[in-house]
Amino acid sequence: xxxxxxxxxxxxxxxxxxxxxxxxxxxxxxxxxxxxxxxxxxxxxxxxxxxxxxxxxxxxxxxxxxxxxxxxxxxxxxxxx
Length: 81
What we know:
Helices cover 80% and strands 0% of the residues. It contains two helices and no strands. It is extended and about 45 Å long. It starts with a helix and ends in a 10-residue tail after the last helix.
């Protein structure tokens, strides 16, 4: 059995991998909407255009662009809560 510090390191590594996966999936969704394409095509385009290493950077950039645009507008669903 590993040390408590080893467990924390493993948990942090897992959390970061999950965060990266979520960002990639969100970027794929953005690309699907922008390009009117399927999920696999968006994934392939992201990897082809930016490589395995660069796709995470591009995913983070796409999310930032969409979030910045969303903050500049009133949220029509804000009053539903």
